[in-house]
Design brief:
Chain A is mainly α and about 170 residues long. Chain A has 2 domains: about 5-85, no CATH class; about 100-170. In chain A, about 75% of the residues lie in helices and about 0% in strands. The radius of gyration of chain A is 20 Å and the shape is flat. With about 220 residues, chain B is mainly alpha-helical. The radius of gyration of chain B is 20 Å and the shape is globular.
Chain lengths: ~170, ~220
């Protein structure tokens, strides 16, 4: 029998001690499997669903909540991932306090450069996934050009990529 | 920074001039939440398109600055970004409207997909479609990166050739650290921040080419 309070706190803890979308996976995996409230397959499924469904990848825990504890679990998971990001208000307040220090500008500049590098590495990682062959690189290039044009609707770009995938890989 | 103008405590009942109301924010974020299939790349691109490019409510450099703050916050960074944008554009109500808009439809669709996943998980059609969509998200991510790189590159250009080289090497080093050397994102970001402070701070009062421009637009400072 799942204890809703403990269940919620496990999700909250995982979210609180993670940053980004999937870094809460190890903690949740360990705790939920340990408590006998989830099985391995539900994790793989949740991550797959999180990748398909709209919104940040981190929403995969909502499907984990749904698969393990129904709609109530999905709602608990949703609340657990909404709360920790509110700490950003504290981060912003701290930043506002130190913003005039001489070294802060350089710090933010280093971070901004790193953000560009992080995004480049994410592209690279996606394109190096097993199953992405040369035609996948062409799809990526096409999507990149269409997205850069600013005129084409995002859904249209993803839909087109899906159709191309259907034709090529069916 | 303008986002701190009211410390997040004030909840204006009517939008300020030039500020969208909570309902407008709810509408925009719902559209983002419903359209951003393909994960974080799509969400980011839609945020850049809506708030920076189409409506001009947030500058490209400011969005990047907000994003930097989110990187140091626990949990999903895009949810933190939604909170910051919501507050900047609509105060407390803006936060609620933005979060509800982004998350309610996505959460609902996620549940529907989870319920139907059993039926389609072995379908070759679904796998083929996904094999097309996944690389497309890489292309979208590249545009997100290019949009974020815009203000960074502009500033480097202003600072001269030497700084442009330093910045280029910096970005490549971060990319290699993550892809080839497989270092953790957190350690790379912390190193990048410290290195940035070391390199770009004019430690000597009259520094040379690395002297940075003033931190933020003075008009947005409190």
């Amino acid at each position: 029998m799942i204890n809703p309070v403990a269940y919620f706190l496990l999700f909250l803890k995982a979210s609180l001690f993670s940053t980004g979308g999937l870094s809460n996976l190890p903690s949740l995996h360990q705790d939920l499997i340990g408590a006998g409230w989830a099985v391995d397959a539900e994790f793989g499924e949740s991550i797959a669903i999180g990748q398909i469904s709209p919104g940040p990848n981190g929403l995969w825990v909502i499907s984990l909540g749904y698969l393990t504890y129904g709609y109530f679990g999905a709602i608990l998971a949703l609340i657990a991932i909404i709360l920790p990001p509110f700490l950003v208000l504290g981060v912003a307040a701290i930043f506002a306090r130190i913003a005039r220090k001489r070294w802060v500008d350089g710090l933010m500049r280093g971070l901004s450069l790193a953000v560009v590098g992080v995004l480049a590495s994410v592209c690279w990682t996606i394109l190096r996934q097993p199953g992405v062959i040369w035609s996948g690189w062409l799809i990526a290039l096409g999507a990149c050009l269409l997205a850069a044009s600013r005129r084409v609707n995002l859904i249209a770009i993803l839909g087109l990529a899906g159709v191309v995938g259907y034709i090529l890989y069916r | 920074m303008s986002q701190d103008r009211d410390g997040g405590t004030m909840m204006p009942s009517t939008p300020r001039p030039g500020q969208p109301g909570a309902l407008t924010l709810l509408r925009i974020w719902t559209a983002i939440g419903l359209q951003s299939f393909g994960g974080g790349a799509s969400t980011q691109l839609l945020i850049q398109r809506e708030f920076v490019q189409r409506r001009g409510w947030i500058g490209a450099d400011e969005l990047l600055r907000l994003w930097n703050l989110c990187l140091f916050t626990p949990g999903i960074n895009l949810v933190s970004l939604t909170i910051l944008i919501g507050r900047k554009l609509g105060g407390g109500r803006g936060i609620v409207a933005s979060l509800a808009g982004l998350l309610a439809p996505s959460a609902a669709v996620t549940c529907v997909l989870a319920a139907g996943f059993e039926a389609v998980q072995h379908s070759t059609t679904v796998h083929a479609v996904l094999r097309g969509v996944v690389p497309a998200t890489a292309g979208i991510m590249a545009v997100v990166g290019a949009n974020f790189a815009g203000p960074v590159a502009q500033r480097a250009r202003k600072d001269g050739l030497r700084v442009m080289w330093v910045c280029g090497v910096f970005v490549v080093a971060v990319t290699l650290a993550l892809t080839v050397f497989k270092l953790s994102a957190a350690s790379v970001l912390i190193c990048a921040a410290l290195l940035g402070a070391a390199i770009f701070t004019p430690w000597r009062q009259r520094s040379t080419a690395l002297d940075p421009a003033p931190m933020t637009d003075p008009t947005t400072l409190p």
